[in-house]
Specification:
about 575 residues; alpha+beta; Beta-Lactamase; 3 domains; 8-stranded antiparallel β-sheet; 5-stranded antiparallel β-sheet; 12 helices; 23 strands; globular; Hydantoin utilization protein B; Hydantoinase_B; 5-oxoprolinase (ATP-hydrolyzing) activity
């Protein structure tokens, strides 16, 4: 490769990254739903069709758990319309059995043509506020099959040769409670793809198709080399781990996800054989969702400056037996898969890799206690609030760093909504959103502190709660402590508040009702007795850790706001001998 080719690779790659980021900004600034314009629960990217299979070539920072799941949706769309694609076509799919994850995530794709051939595909994948079906908000803990999850949208065209298919558009909007949001959100996604199409056409006109494709090939090859270099540094062998989801919301408990990771030179094989059979409840993970969470796990073990594209997964093979919780067969419900068992999929892969390269793992996936609320505005239009403030927290530690921020790795592209805007958009008040001491996994590096979040609704509403991470909490790594248990307490105005153990559906909340989340922090990394005593002192001063926990868990003696090193050494030596 000569210098000119290297420069063109960087220019084309940077242009595609910029296009993906401009798509993201377009959706944020034009969408109606707070899920988009406040929480940023969507992902934008660009794919190519230069080979038989579509390839991810650029992606803007977004909801990380979407990272690779979009690939399956794009592949199914291209397979379905491979002989019927025309300039101006815009495609839509959400079906978990056609490349989707759960049916609340919708994917829109627009092929960009050059010399009458489809070359690049801007795409937007977004979590919608509602998906029809029996339950407002789409999360249905009583779901028995895929149809109970909500509207299934197989691969279809919503624009054909530049003309809007109004009948299809109307059908989709009519089957959604939040039609007053949905129409604007779809227009925002479509507008982002149209904007990207214009930018891509300009780029193709400037550099030509062959040069652009060659530059994309080179960039994907560069990412692949970097990832292979990482994997090659790991010792060859087969490493196994398993973890469990608490339940499937239908009475089945301790749902197993088992990962076997085989390192062979620069190749990685992740096999989920031995995982539980598909379950009755709506936690079954379609293969695209399973692959995406495996990708999240692998990507967190590699250098963060590696460009995100198809090259990341070329060295990795993911296999999962059909009919299992990680690769279900129709009509198993999948409505909660992007949280549960998605979190367990990433966790099992990271736990397996921790046997191989412990210093590479950490920032574990979330065990998300989901509690969403819905009601009706004064004008009669419905609203659904996912209560994002209650899901913050859960980020685990990694080698040489404590857990950071308010969202764990799988949600790092999601932003915390403005409290003020949230209170304008919903009849709600955020009464509390603060850290809680002694509520995270201890370690040489500890998880992010857990949170106490209280949300009050000023109008009548209904809340459904789906607990996770109560018995099987987020794991720590390398002799660290696991995270504590999550809690959700619902005060519906009766004398006694209700501490939800597993799930409760459509709890009627009067005006003034309060939902309280105790969102546990993440797991730790390394032996807590090896944590720097003065770092423990700082945690005590910041009220992340109590003086009692500093002594009992970390073996650090603190008196008069200072560390007694002599006593600390004695305590730690004694504890280590007893262990």
């Amino acid at each position: 490769m000569n210098n000119q080719d290297i420069i063109l690779q960087q220019v084309v790659g940077g242009s595609l990254d910029a296009i993906a980021e401009e798509m993201s900004a377009t959706v944020t600034r034009t969408a109606r739903s707070p899920l988009f314009n406040e929480a940023h629960d969507f992902t934008t990217g660009v794919f190519d069709l230069s080979e038989d299979k579509s390839r991810l070539v650029a992606q803007a920072p977004g909801c990380t758990l979407h990272l690779y799941a979009v690939v399956g949706a794009v592949d199914h769309l291209m397979e379905n319309f491979q002989y019927d694609l025309h300039p101006g076509d815009i495609l839509l799919v959400n079906d978990p059995y056609h490349g989707g994850s759960h049916s609340l995530d919708w994917t829109i794709v627009m092929p960009v043509f050059y010399n009458r051939k489809p070359i690049l595909l801007p795409a937007v994948r977004s979590h919608m506020g509602d998906n029809g079906g029996p339950v407002a908000g789409g999360y249905n803990p009583n779901s028995k099959d895929i149809w109970h999850d909500g509207l299934r949208i197989p691969p279809l065209k919503i624009y054909e040769r530049g003309e809007k298919r109004q009948d299809v558009f109307d059908l989709i909007v009519a089957n959604n409670r939040l039609s007053h949001w949905l129409e604007g959100d779809l227009d925002a996604m479509i507008g982002a793809c149209k904007m990207a199409s214009s930018r891509i056409q300009t780029m193709l006109d400037r550099y030509g198709m062959d040069s652009t494709v060659n530059a994309i090939d080179s960039r994907i090859a560069y990412t692949e080399r970097r990832v292979r270099d990482e994997i090659s540094s790991w010792p060859d062998g087969t490493y196994r781990a398993e973890t469990f989801a608490d339940h499937d919301f239908q009475g089945n408990r301790d749902i197993k996800v088992r990962a076997e990771v085989t390192v062979s030179g620069s190749n990685l094989h992740i096999d989920f054989a031995g995982s539980s059979p598909q379950v009755d409840g709506f936690i079954n993970s379609p293969i695209s969702n399973t692959t995406s969470f495996a990708f999240v796990a692998v990507s967190t073990c590699c250098d963060e400056d590696i460009p995100i594209n198809e090259g990341y997964m070329n060295p990795v093979i993911v296999t999962a037996p059909s009919g299992t919780v990680v690769n279900p067969e129709l009509p198993a419900p999948c409505g909660h898969a992007t949280a549960c068992v998605g979190a367990e999929i990433a966790e099992a892969v990271l736990l397996a890799i921790s046997h191989c390269v412990p210093k590479r793992v950490g920032v574990n996936a979330h065990k998300l206690p989901l509690a969403y609320t819905n009601g009706v505005y004064e004008d009669g239009k419905p609203w659904v609030n996912l209560n994002f403030f209650g899901y913050t927290g859960g980020a685990g530690a990694a080698y040489e760093t404590d857990g950071w921020g308010l969202y764990p790795a799988v949600m790092t592209g999601v932003t915390l909504p403005s409290i003020e805007m949230n209170e304008v958009q919903y009849p709600s008040r955020v009464l509390k959103h603060e850290y809680v001491h002694d509520f995270t996994g201890a370690g040489k590096w500890r998880g992010a502190p857990g949170l106490d979040v209280q949300i009050q609704y000023t109008a009548e509403s209904r809340t459904s709660v789906m607990m996770a991470g109560v018995r099987n909490t987020t794991k720590g790594f390398h002799n660290a402590e696991d995270a504590p248990s999550n809690r959700v307490i619902v005060n519906d105005g009766t004398d006694q508040a209700r501490d939800i153990k597993e799930t409760e559906f459509a709890i009627k909340m009067p005006a003034g009702g309060i939902i309280q989340f105790y969102r546990a922090g993440g797991g730790g990394w390394g032996n807590p007795f090896e944590r720097d005593p003065y770092t423990v002192l700082e945690d005590v001063k910041n009220d992340y850790v109590s003086i009692e926990t500093a002594l009992d868990t970390y073996g650090v003696v603190i008196q008069n706001q200072s560390v007694d090193m002599e006593e600390t050494d004695v305590v730690r030596e004694k504890r280590q001998k007893n262990n």
